[in-house]
Amino acid sequence: MFLQHVHNRIRALTVISRHVPLIRDRLAFLRLRRSTVALQRRWRLQLARRVAAASQLQAAVRGWIVRRRTQRALHGIARFQVCSEPEAGACWHFVYGYVSCMLVQVLRIPCVWCLALCFR
User: Are 72 and 96 within 8 A, CB to CB?
Assistant: First the structure.
């Protein structure tokens, strides 16, 4: 009876010892996978923050450009309203810097240098 019990224990020990390297490798793999997932999560969070910061910066610059264009357009329109009839023979350049292209092509606004004649 005792020998049978020892024999069963030895057989169980050999079965278990065969699987020990597999279990050890599996635990090492799971540890590496957990750390890899944590690194990926951290990297993606950092990348998302950078993208959000770049989007905010681009939006701020776009808003500044639009405000500057609007201010220049209003300035050009105000100058045109001050002098609605420039002197005869004044040139009719397109003023792309002060008014949007479509508005300039429709109104044929005189250039800034010609408008300076009106302020005499």
Answer: no
Handedness of CA 46, 51, 57, 60 (dihedral sign): negative
How do the pLDDT tens digits run along the chain, 120 residues long? 888 888 888 888 888 888 888 999 999 999 999 999 999 999 999 999 999 999 999 999 999 999 998 888 887 776 666 555 544 444 444 444 444 444 444 455 555 555 554 444
CA atoms within 13 A on the CB side of 73: 13
Question: For residues 52 and 84, what is the distance between their CA atoms, to the nearest angstrom?
Answer: 47
Under 8 Å between Cβ of 72 and 97: yes
Q: How many CB atoms lie within 10 A of CB 11?
A: 10
